Amino acid sequence: VVWIDGSGKTEPLISRPDIYFDPRLSPDLRSLAIVNAGNNGPDIDMWDIQRQMMSPLTSNRHNNLYPVWTPDSHHLVFESRWEGVHTMWWTRADGGSEPRKLLEAHQSIIPYSVSPDGRRIAFYESSPAAGMDLWTLSLDLTDIHNPKPGSPELFLQTSADESQPAFSPDGHWIAYTSDESRSNQVYVRPFPPGPGKWQISREGGSWPRFARDGKQLFYVAADGHLMAVDYQAKVDSFEASNPRAWTDSTFNAAAALSPYDVAPDGKRIVSIPRPSDSDDKGSVHVELILNFFEELRRRIP
Questions:
Q1: pLDDT, tens digit, for every residue of 217-252?
Q2: How far is CA 258 from CA 27, 164, 210, in A?
Q3: What value does the mean pLDDT take over residues 203-216?
Q4: Are 184 and 204 spatial neighbours (Cβ–Cβ below 8 Å)?
């Protein structure tokens, strides 16, 4: 797991090798939540960026996935699967209490972002019959450690598959991925739902992420490059610049979990880059020894 800045400079963040997915930076930049599929996972681990230490947040072997931070950097939302039931949870990031169940369903309910005021979760529901649609879930945060969920509210449902809904820093827009044009592209719509839809990506796109400075929107293009778009949001319109490649590093655009996250200032990302075809992969030499015991007896009578 590495840091990458806009010049392409790479610095290691987590040097301990494992099977990592879906890195998520806390808003205060102190911690990284990440899915670890090793050791009978997947489970969610917490990496302390300052102390360079890893600790497990979940360890119950119930396919804990899709961590999403709340704006206060003290809580996380995630999804797990218990005996065929998909469940969305709220938990303290320090593991100081048992997770609280927010929602359950017989199909995937995947959290992707939390509104800036922390009172609404944007998620997508996936089912064999209806495909993928976008929803939000309101939260009563009177008791911040035990929020009370409202009823899920439909944000967008069409004949296409919509996924990965990301709240803008001001909470008035949602970027998302849709295959309505027969290939995945990134779009933006107003929130609460209203008129208007703006296509952001050109040559395919997925995994949208807003920088928290309110100036850039990132996504992964179909060829795996990370793209950045400058934008200006007005009352009833969303004006976006032409997408530009942000780094030469490439990612798996078709991955089931996100390969990157954006630092709050939008100047660097944390990522799990895939090796490029030009990387020196070294060589592997295998020897097969036949009649091994006869050879052993010959050498050691």
A1: 999 999 999 999 999 998 889 999 999 999 888 888
A2: 17, 10, 14
A3: 93
A4: yes
Give bridge partners of residue 82 from the DSSP assignment.
Answer: 85
pTM of the predicted protein model: 0.88
Other beta carbons within 10 angstroms of residue 141's beta carbon come to: 17
Q: What distance in Å separates the CA atoms of residue 41 and residue 60, rounded to the nearest whole number? A: 9
Phi, psi of 122 (to 5 degrees): -95, 125
Of 13, 33, 23, the C-alpha closest to 74 is: 33
Q: Verify cis geometry, omega within 30 degrees of 0, for the bond prior to 192.
A: yes
The mean pLDDT value of the chain amounts to: 91
Neighbour count for residue 246 (Cβ, 10 Å): 21
* Strand 206-210 to 198-199 pairing: unpaired
> For residues 174 and 158, what is the distance between their CA atoms, to the nearest angstrom?
16
